[in-house]
Amino acid sequence: MNLPLRVGVDGTPCCGIRAGRLTPLPHTEHMFSILSMSSATDERDLTARATIRNAALRLFAHRGHDTVTVREIAAAAGVSPALVLHHFGSKDGLRAAVDAHAAESLDAIFAELGGEELAGMLARGEATTSVAESFVQVFPPGSPLPAYLRRLLLTNDPAGAALFARWYATTRGVLEAMVENGIAAPTDDPAVRAAFLLVNDLAVILLREQITTAIGDDPLTPAGLTRWTKDVTAVYTGGAFTDPGKEPPS
């Protein structure tokens, strides 16, 4: 939900990036521990079932569910096709397991962003409401989850639609808390405002390759997010356009 910014102790929005790098945030460290315990970064759980699931996640993220075969998943996981079917029953069963794993991992970010103490943490400069920043800090380079999320959301997949609905509800709650605490400006149409903020933040993930080509930096790396957040912060706090009825500053 791209209020892509942190908020300083004086209530002034800021990027959460210092000395050219992302600043570690207490809530992000807590989030990372949650994700670690659930193997959300994909590589830590090395049981046969998890190895197969992780191989499928990478292939599905790269090529889509429909074009990947059980034999290819087995080869990528270093197991036999029979073992894949033993653990998951079918390719559809494996896909359901991958969807559930990805949803759990991604929902963990929004659960933290939507926590009851978020408003106070924002006011103290201890939290971020940026999904993109959370991705950079939580998921390791090369994680297939951003690409998998992109496929879920852009192919009208039911799992993607369910994720978006949950995240939108969280965004509404966070926005309401920020307005109540004087961190965000009120609006006559909070439904549109929440959708606008969420879509803007997800765009960095969904259009990652196109943005990389356009600006010359990957927006899901610390360097790219530093550039992205700096200008987006300026737009959100100062606006992108001038008022034609006002005199230009001298």
Task: Give an overview of the whole structure.
This protein has a domain at 6-36 and 102-238: Tetracycline Repressor, domain 2 (Orthogonal Bundle). Helix content is 62%, strand content 3%. It has helices at 26-37, 48-63, 70-77, 81-88, 91-113, 118-123, 131-138, 145-154, 158-180, 190-206, 208-215, 222-238, and strands spanning 6-7, 13-14, 17-18, 21-22. The strands form 2 sheets. Strands 1-2 form a two-stranded antiparallel ribbon. A two-stranded antiparallel sheet has the order 3-4. Helix 1 (26-37) runs antiparallel to helix 5 (91-113), helix 2 (48-63) packs across helix 3 and helix 3 (70-77) crosses helix 4. It is elongated.
